[in-house]
Amino acid sequence: MAGMTASDIRIDPLERRHLPALAALLEDPAVLRFTRVPVPVPEGFIDSWFDLYQRGRQDGTMEAFAICSADEVLGIAVAPRIDRETRTAELGYVTSPAARGRGVARAALALLTEWAFRETGAVRLELMISPENPASQRVAERCGYVLEGTLRSLHFKQGLREDTQIWSRLAGDPAPVEGAGRAGPPPIPQPTPE
After folding, report:
1. How far apart are CA 26 and CA 33, in angstroms?
2. What pLDDT digit, counting tens, does each position of 86-115 carry?
């Protein structure tokens, strides 16, 4: 991955050949902490998860992509919920530990966002992010998503409840500016001291 840039990233429709790399993600404590993957991971989970997304691909309600650079799988980008009637979709992304801090998640989310607006006809995209995951929050912000608020005690896993932030991006929102800070409305101009 040395010398890799965000332009080297692509998202490929998930296939069985990608599963060994994705199975390795299930050993990462951050993946287990910040995703809906059950802990402990049940036997055969990756295959049943893949089959679920294949059915969702066929009926247009879900989609999954491998995040790739050259022939290396760096993570996964998903649309776990596509609602064509309301024209909304939930998106998500996970990268391998070796890919973190290199712009991979940001590039993958940008590609996934572009795909979702173009291919699903969505007018509203949503991300559900743990308040304890600042890295994912920065990715969302840099991709033009706006923090709408915190859904209290929404996430339930292993007998524990946790708050979840909801971030959104609308089809009519301006494209994010490279290197820009927080997405959302511009700051209110302050009076100039005289």
Report:
1. 10
2. 999 999 999 999 898 889 999 999 999 999
